[in-house]
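User: Reviewer 2 asked us to show a designed sequence for the structure in our supplementary figure. I'm pasting the structure tokens here. Could you produce the per-position amino acids so we can include them in the response letter?
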């Protein structure tokens, strides 16, 4: 089991910051992140997703299907992370999306396997995928990887082959329970979410839409070493973020509940992304760094502010729809108390 201090250093920090007119060396983390998700809290700017595997000059957004660095808002002139640093990251000077003077932002940071070489596992870099133990199947080529086996998180960049039967290695020590991926060479394809946690079968959702889940045929799969996507289709380059539960630290699950029933995770969450999979509901993100001190009916942290991964909306707050974070789980919002709610919770 991972301790609280290890979890804090190992995987994620949730810190607010204000944009400044100079370059910012962001020191809110005690590790060098490999994946950073940024959002302006007060404006309708895109969510900005960057990772060390694709590099600092590569931007995507969760709220659209734009290809990498495409559209005016995602162009590099609109700002981005310019380096991943030992204690955080550095932002470009006075940039609209990520660093405007006086604006309030939130950044969620994940530590994967480092970025000392093309293929990285647990802070050791390798020049080839085979040396890193990342042997994909069926001719699938890995362009790069960063894997944190202890945290149950990996970043996999792979090239789809000509017949579309792609089987990249995920690098983790067990089967991922949640894979979020985007073919980033095209704007015709959005963000896919693969999981078996809703009903036991493999389902797909779309991070950039409110759509309900869809059942897959038997063509795609996730197993202990590989996953398969896009059977029969060549999608170009794909970035994938893979997660599995870690006792005391990270939980992927689903529930059928109402707001008076606790969802047990085994730890007090500090960050939750949640989606009702049976209907057209948004992907809500809530965290305790934006917590205003309110207490819920069960004595926990009543977290009111939320952002929506599938929308560029500014931060919203619904008092009666808040999630209450308690010592061993959470009580869901009144808006997310239905059958088949998927969540990713992190301590």
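Assistant: Here is a per-position design you can include in the supplement:
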């Amino acid at each position: 089991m991972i301790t609280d201090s290890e979890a804090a250093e190992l995987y994620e920090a949730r810190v607010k910051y204000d944009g400044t007119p100079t370059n910012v060396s962001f020191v809110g983390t005690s590790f060098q992140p490999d994946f950073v998700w940024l959002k302006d809290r007060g404006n309708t700017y895109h969510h900005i997703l960057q990772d060390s595997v694709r590099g600092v000059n590569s931007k995507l957004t969760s709220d659209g299907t734009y290809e990498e660095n495409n559209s005016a808002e995602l162009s590099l002139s609109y700002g981005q992370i310019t380096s991943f640093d030992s204690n955080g990251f550095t932002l470009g000077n006075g940039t609209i999306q990520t660093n405007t003077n006086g604006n309030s932002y939130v950044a969620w940071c994940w530590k994967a396997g480092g970025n000392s070489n093309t293929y990285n596992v647990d802070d050791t870099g390798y020049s080839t995928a085979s040396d890193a133990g990342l042997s994909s199947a069926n001719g699938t080529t890995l362009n790069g990887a960063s894997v944190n086996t202890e945290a149950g998180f990996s970043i996999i960049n792979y090239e789809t082959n000509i017949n579309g039967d792609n089987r990249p290695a995920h690098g983790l020590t067990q089967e991922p329970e949640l894979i979020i991926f985007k073919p980033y060479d095209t704007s015709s394809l959005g963000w896919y979410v693969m999981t078996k946690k809703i009903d036991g079968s493999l389902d797909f959702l779309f991070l950039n839409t409110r759509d309900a889940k869809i059942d897959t045929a038997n063509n795609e799969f996730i197993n202990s070493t590989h996953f398969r996507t896009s059977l029969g289709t060549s999608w170009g380059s794909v970035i994938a973020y893979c997660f599995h539960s870690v006792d005391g630290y990270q939980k992927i699950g689903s529930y059928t509940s109402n707001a008076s029933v606790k969802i047990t995770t085994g730890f007090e969450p500090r960050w939750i992304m949640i989606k009702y999979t049976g209907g057209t509901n948004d992907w809500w993100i809530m965290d305790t760094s934006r917590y205003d001190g309110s207490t819920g009916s069960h004595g926990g942290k009543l977290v009111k502010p939320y952002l929506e991964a599938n929308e560029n909306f500014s931060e919203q707050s619904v008092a009666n729809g808040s999630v209450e974070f308690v010592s061993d789980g959470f009580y869901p919002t009144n808006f997310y108390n239905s059958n088949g709610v998927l969540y990713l919770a992190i301590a």
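For the response letter, you might also mention the following. Residues 4-10 form the longest helix (7 residues). The two ends are 12 Å apart (CA to CA).
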